[in-house]
Structure formats: C-alpha cells, structure tokens
Amino acid sequence: MISFSNVSKRYPGGGQALHGLTLAIQAGELAFVTGHSGAGKSTLLKLIPAIERATSGSVIVAGQNVGALKRAALPFLRRNLGLVFQDQKLLYDRSVYDNVMLPLAISGHAPREAAPRARAALDKVGLLARERANPIQLSGGEQQRLAIARAVVSRPSILIADEPTANLDAESAGLILDIFVSFNQVGVTVLVATHDEALVRRYARRVVRLAAGRLAEDSGAA
Amino acid sequence: MRRWLREHRHALGAALARFAEQRTASLLNALVIGVALALPAGGYALLANLRALTQRFTLEPELTVFMRVEATRADADALGARLRSDARVRSVRFTSREAALKELRETAGLGDVVAALDYNPLPDAFVVRARDPQPAALEALAAELRAVPSVAEVQVDSAWARRLAALLDLGRLAVALLAALLGVALVAVTFNTIRLQILTRRDEIEISKLIGATDAFVRRPFFYLGLLQGAAGGLLAAGILWAALAALNVGVRELAQAYGSDFQLGFLRPAEAAALLAFSAALGWLGAYLSVSKYLREIEPK
After folding, report:
1. Per DSSP, which regions of A35-166 are E strands?
2. pLDDT 10s digits, B187-225
3. CB spacing of B210 vs A110 below 8 angstroms
C-alpha cells in the first residue's frame, strides 16, 4: 500500500532528515512510527501526501510514484488520504459540522449526500452533539477527534496521523488511539507517528522506530 | 455538468459570505469603484446627450445662398440654373421668400411677430450641397457666389456643426482615456482587496490544499469576490450617475424651456447601463485574477 525505497530527504539549507530508508506498509495494516524529536517521523509522513518530496529514492502510495506526480495531480492523491496533524489544522471561523463538510465540498459531493456522511463521521468520534459548536469551544481531545472526523469523512483507504496525541492527557490520548484502531478494524490502513512509545506498546501492533533519520527497529519487518 | 454547477454555486456562496462578512470594507471598496466609474460614465452620458442634440443639424457640406431682398424671381431663376449646371454642385434646393415666411410663421412663438410685420423681410434662398466636402473647396464656391450681384450673403452652414462634431470626437477620446485610466485604478483596488483576502485566509487555503482542494477550487471564490465587488461598484456608479443627471436636469429643463425646447439630459440606455455593469464586473474579475495568479501559488501546505 505504501512503500519507501531507499528514501533520503535533505531540507534546503538544513540537515539530513532521512537516510536511505526502506519500509513497506501493507494494505489494512496499522503501524506506529516512533522515535525521539528530530528522528524523522514527521518528514516520513509528509512524503506520503507529497507535502515534502524525497531528495532521492521513491515513495509509492497505492501504486502511484508520489515523487513523479505533477503539482496538478496532488489534490487527487490527497483526497484518498486522511491526514491528522498535531496542531489539528481546523478552521476556527466555521462550525464543527462545516469543518467536516469541507473535504466533501472539495471533492464535489452534493450537500444532500454529504450531510449524512458528515454527521456519521462526527457520530463515530462522539462529536455529533457538538456539530453547531465552534472548534474553539472544544477541548484539545475533542479538537483532535474533530480532525479525525474530517480526515475520515471522505472514506480514505489510508489514514495518516502525525503526533495526534501530543499535548493530550493519557485518557484522551488512549481514546484517540482507540479511534484509529477502530478504523483499522474496518480495513483502513493507518500510520500513526508518536514519540510516546509507552502508549503504543499497549497495542499489539507494528512499531517502526526511527533514530536520526534511520530505521532503528521494525517490529513487523519480515 | 451538475458537479461543475455545484462547485460554482459553492464558490459563489463562499464569495457572498466573504462579501457580507466584511460588509463595511466591501461597500467602501465598491464605493471607490463606483465613484471612479461614475466619472467616465457621466462624461459618456453627457457626450451622448450632446451628440443627440447636434444630430438635429446637418453635417453635410452645405452652403446657404441668400438673395438680395430686392432681387427679382428672374434673378433667382438665373442663379438656380447656373448652380444646377455647376459640376461642383451635387444638389440645389430653392426656398422662396414666401415659403420662408410661412415656415417662420409656423415656428413656435414667432407667429405673432410675423403677423405684426407689414412686409416680408426674408429673401429667396438656395441650399447648395457641394460634391467636395473640403473647407477650401466650399470656401472657393462661396467666394464665387458672393461675387454675383443679386446675392446678398453666402453662409457655409456645416462648418460650425463639423467643428462641434470634431470637439465631440475629442471629448469621446478623452472619456475613453479617462475610462482606461480609472479602469486600471479599479483593477488595482480589486487586486489589493483580493491580496488582503488571500493573506487573511492563508490558513484556510493551506488546509484546503492539504485535504485535496485543486487550485481551481481555491481560486474560484476569489474570482467571484472580485466579480461581485466590480459589479457592486458598477451599480453604485449607475446610481451616482442617475442622481447627478437628475440634479442637473432641474437646471437644464429650465434653460431648455426658455428656448421653447423640451430637451433634458437622458440617462444611459438599458444596453449601455448593462455594459457599464459588465465592464466593472469584468475589471473586478481581472483584478482578482491577477492577484490570485500572483499570490496563491506561494501558499502551499507545510
């Protein structure tokens, strides 16, 4: 589903974030990417939706060589990915409901068809009762659940989350990871980056540990 | 097709929401555009009114030859025959002194004056149309006719009307130049408004691109916003022009009545008003297009 072949990434004027990384995530798999700050977790995840491009090597997502995609093709790649960020990237000038409706409007769904899907996504993360609220009125954990609802409303086959539990208490963090697990159970490929190794060890799932841009451990490697 | 329409409806809705969100700023921008457009639109309307007024007068190369009052009908017939045989003359129309007096009698407000006369002071006259419209040729013909003993005066009728027409053409050029200059100003106003909109919506653009928005999806609401702002400016320009003409007409009507005329300044015709709206909307769109082309590509997800 997702494969990195000998991928390196050097930022212009910066350091080397990844060194010849090779890694494959199978369809329907849930993998945690762990490592200390600066290990290369975020860079690895940003290569999948082509927010960043690899300096060398190839990144293949659902059969597409992401590095070779032209700028105009990127929106269509991203519509098939659910992205969740540490800072949520929500729109605070519109309601919870409107935030979840945005991906559906972008992909051209009719409001009649989109509305029940948006409500179903909010229901799945336990926020249906707050649909009229502004995201600013939500707690940190609720905002992260809203970001997940927005990521899954388009029913992507791949869900990517970068530090979704950072700044959350243990209970909220556990709830967020449970939601990812539940999506994985219905066949969604899930890749979650987190520095909280203790939290992920509670789930018997594949753990990929990065250190200084290199693969240090892969519990699911063949 | 339905999807395309849906996307445009979504973009128009977003643009209207942004317009309403910053109501005061949007209306002030529209007012700036309206005032800027009202100037050339007003100039155009005034010129159109003047042109309509001058169209009552002929611009053909004409001479009017007035005979002496004491000249006989035989003198007139002789001159008529000479004129009709002249190769430089295209047509000749004779107006007898009796016909001229009758026409004067029927002119509004002059009936009583004519009735008070105990003799006909008007001469026989010829209206001569020349083949060559050049002023030199007309003047040469006029000079020859002035030398005829039975001729009292020769008037080159079209000269003043031609000068006025030339002045109107010059005025039209000035209005076109003014419209072009203010059009550039309008594009600059919209460019800057949309630039500010893009900057204040940077997060929204970045997030939208992150979740799969195409450039077209992101651009469309800004195009509609420019279009709306331009159209609102055009509407205000039409309103300002209508009000200004209504105010001017109070004085114009009084002046015209003093000359026995019902002339008043007319507003733009419906097609011209529609063209003003379309022009201002198109300029708004152009400003938005230039702004979006310059700034939107710089915003990419990080």
Report:
1. 56-61, 64-65, 81-84, 158-162
2. 888 898 889 888 888 888 999 999 999 988 999 999 999
3. no
